[in-house]
Amino acid sequence: MNKIYSLLDEKKVTKLFKEKLLPHYPQIKKIERIAITPYKKLIWETTYHVVFSYDVFWRDEQGAEKRLQIVCSAHSNEPRENVLSTLQYLWRKDLPDEFIKLPRPLFYEKKFRATFYRAVSGHTLLHYIKAGDKEMIADLVFGAARMFAKLHQLPIDADFQFNADNQRIYSVVPGEKFIYEELAARFKNNEAENLVDLYRQCVEQEKISFPPSSERAMIHGDAHPENIIKVGERKIGLIDFTDFCPADFARDLGAFLQQIEYKIVRKVEDLHFAGEMKKVFLDEYLKVSGKELDANLQKRINLYYDWTALRTAVYWFLNHRANEVNGRELLALVRERQKTGRLAQELMINYKS
To answer: In the Cβ-directed half-sphere of 226, how many Cα atoms lie within 13 Å?
Structure first.
């Protein structure tokens, strides 16, 4: 049996938490019970990619029941120790403040290649997009811009071991080879050639617009609405630091702009509102960061926007609930933007209007 199932066994998890978790919370004298919720449960014969949530219940000195939510991120082929070290780094650099909340790092369990951290509680930006709550969407997009601006200004420690594989497009998982082989195996048409051709164009564009000598910033690496959390009246949370690394800050901008537009158009069905939210995000980011939207930055934003669209297309083609229509629509849009530069003009108009 796959060893990861141990982390779905309440007795075994309780034993692990007594040893590894309770030293972080001396006020917890005894764990009463643990409720386990699998957020992501991809488990095969010997491999796995999982995210589990644990509601740890205990009682205070007055006998009142308390709850502590812990999250576990584990991958059989990708050690998640970098997630723990990343969170520790961000806490040392004071990214969390009165407006920004991050998961609190707890411990790493080598046996499962799993990192455990205290959860950030609240609804995601994607939740509010699905609900069509435009006021809350606008509030969170504004907050996300300020949060990414602060993240990108953090100093980079030369001796810190970051995830090297995520620093350039060509090395980000799953990569060109995997994408081509999987698409070619599943589709007997030219989908694989079409997507990989556009993917290669992004790789080449990055080499030109952001050469290896370029100054890097600390980026989240997976900037999309599901990783932005509404925590309180004036507080915003950021989660999922698997892809955190020093790279081109424009990658977070392009990814977030593409995902905001894509999700709002699909869920809210309001293209004008999607454009407004892109303007809000970019406008506030530039204001807080002090950066200028010059031709090179615009080009890089467009590049990462297209790359994110391609990644979304790969998701639609290769997901267990594959949707070829959605995948082809995204490929057509990227191809059109590559030919006409329409996105560059659209973003510039939104920003200057």
So the answer is: 7
